[in-house]
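Quick one: structure tokens for this chain, please?
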Amino acid sequence: MADDAQPSDNDRLISVLKSCFVELIQKQEDIQKAVEALKPQVAMDKKTTFWTTYMKLADEHDKELHQKYSTDLDTTLIFAGLFSAVSSAFIIQIQPQAGPDAPTIFVAAQSLLYISLLTTLLAALLAILGKQWLMYYQAAGSRGTIEERGLERQRKLDGLRRWKFDAVLQMLPLLLQLALLLFSSALSLYLWTLHRSIAAIVLGLTLLGLGSYIALLATAIASPDSPFQTPFVPPARQAIASVLQALAVIRRRWRRLAKRLAASLARVINPKAHNTLPSFVTIPARFNQLATRKPLLGRSSAEVPAVVWILETSTDPMMISAAAEMAVDLNWPLDIDLDPLMDRLSETFASCFRLAFNGTFNVSKLLEDAAPRAVNCGRAYSFLRHISRASGRPIYREPRPFIYWREENEDAGNRSPAVQQLSNVVAILTSARLGLDVVSDNNRWGLYVYPTLHAGQFSSVRTALDYFLRQFEERQISNLDQTTFSDYLCCVVHLLSPVDAGLMVKVDKRGFKIMLLIQLFEALTRNTARIDTDLTARVISTTAKLFTLKGGLLHSMRDIERLMTTVSQFCAALPPGNIPTSVFAATLASIENTTDLALTSYNPLKLQNVNWIFCALEYVQQRWRDNLDSPEGPVVWDETTAASITSLLQFLACSDPDSLPDRPSTEVMHIILTALFTRSESACAAFLVLYRAQRWVLNPDANPILRTSWAMLRPVVLSHPNLAACYLDMGNNIANTPEWKPVFYADFATWHSAFTTSTRRLAFRLVDPEYAPFSHDETQRMYVSVVRSIWAPEFDAEGKGIDETNDSWIYSMLAFSKAWDAFPFSADKIFDFVLLAHGTVATSLRITYFGPQRDVDSPNGTVPFRPSVQVTRDTQFF
């Protein structure tokens, strides 16, 4: 017995082999894990994560949908086949009895049998078509990127809902039920002609079945929890609700009409008791903010239906988190029901916490690794809540179980970035504070939802503005990106006056930045009684600190003109002691490309009150000098000073020439000349100021300084083609002045270069014809007039039979010869030498484009000028 209990050699061998196999499998798993760890991890953005999650859920949903409908359609086809066979058998049985003398009741029974058969065949046909429709839907999203496949699949799913695909397929059982009712009725009528006792039994059973069906249907309509649901229940319930609502509306209108009739009757009985004037109630502006919603709202994002479908369908917290992360980057429509989505987001947010007891009261403990999911769901909830509030719909439920978590973790240190973001999310969810930080993405989301966050919380506009501005002052946030800055503007404007709901819910408001700035200054001007000067200065200074000039979208010149006009009116109305506010306001209206103002130089804005500009220029210059380390400080301005002076000079360049003084102060003239030295946007603005204020150039007291500094205009004109026409116009106005002739005589190359640049831009339509100051002929006449007056006064071209184009070429050659005779060859004139040599060679070879080629049969009968080298857009001009 003892020998039998010992394991045999085979058992020991099998045991050893098993242990070896286990070790081998374990090592294989370890190697597989190591290989997976060595593979490069591909980081997916939120879009890729969302669409990957979407397609995973879509595959599961579509598989269930196809299985459900396929089973229903197969059942319909089987029942329709069997039932049509039974109907056909009865039709064949009673068909020989049909004749011209058949009783009416027999004909009715036969007709109902045929109708029943046709109804059954129609149900079978629709079932076959339903199979084809399912195959077409199942083919969605088979090609393209994952985003394209997801969008195509969502469009087809929306098509199923829009065209009531489910309702159409749910009609098939109703058709079969109708066919069965018709068959029973026909059978009862047929038996009535044969034996009334049997017919009464069949009719009684038919009525019993019909009554039971109606009773079950009524219980399903009355109670959604009833298990006897049928396809007819949802539309029946909706129809009953519509009827009840219509009856309620009729009842309210009838009561209102009865009150009016009673009031009219009372006036007739006692007219003296009703001789007061009626009360006209003005509707507040905030209730009219949806009036202009449509043009501002635009189209909703294409991904919105996909996000809605996931939030409505999925119960997986990770899928809901991916959809929530995607939701905050989309433009949502205002007419969508967001309550079910917000309910799902609120539940998912709450699932990231567990209820605990800390000894005094219940608190919400954050689950491990649940912070990112809570952040996504909380952001999406507040995002959709903002849209609902902006659209005027009340929120049916607010999340409340998260306040204790915030209070418990108020003093917690060393938080992870996810937990810090969650703290900001909870603060906004509970309307405790704005929750700004140095992360730009968090600021953008917080500023987006802020306009509807503190509705009715503050007692006055001043209190609300003070709280809002302190969020940026205490955290020292500056230089927001363009999208976040536009959201900031929307918040400030909304605190001062209502903002259009369509604009408020728009995710990217960069295209409306100019409009929001205009509304800001208009609102500050209207609210002078409610906010004092100090608070106005804080609003403007904080906005200027957060403002980023570069990187924004392009705006039309009309928008820029309107903004500059509004800002100028605002600054002119400020008290004398608010010069810093004027400087900040001018910075907000600055133009990134100053040369664009040259397009408005011929149709100026004509800003009337410009005294504030001169005061602000002198203030900025003095502040810069006070901050210098030594009295002999650098000539170059710092970045802040240069930006302020550029914006102020832009305003001065758009001012009405009649409103400018005859000569500027010495300080302002020094600022303009210093700006010309910078060769930047400040230099362009200074040039445009001199072009606008040509009275300063002709002033006997000021022109000596300008004549000595005139050479500084050359690099500005040569570097900015938009300024060429301004230079020609200015030169044409002052070149005939005796004291200015020597200045022009020494620099023909600049004059010729400005002329060729201007004509080239006109010929190739590089400038908008609406803003083109002069035509080709006018440009040539100005050029020839100045050349003839300064460089070739002894030459008279009248009566020579030369057209204007050749006239320009001849005068150019004469002027170049004079310029070479007077040119001082020295080491510091290398650039002048190159410019003059290039102009001479280009003009001699006739490759410089002077104007449009005229037809041979032109009205003046002149010979057309044809350049020997063909000029194209690729031709290089210097």
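The chain has four domains: 47-194, 303-554, 555-702, 709-878.
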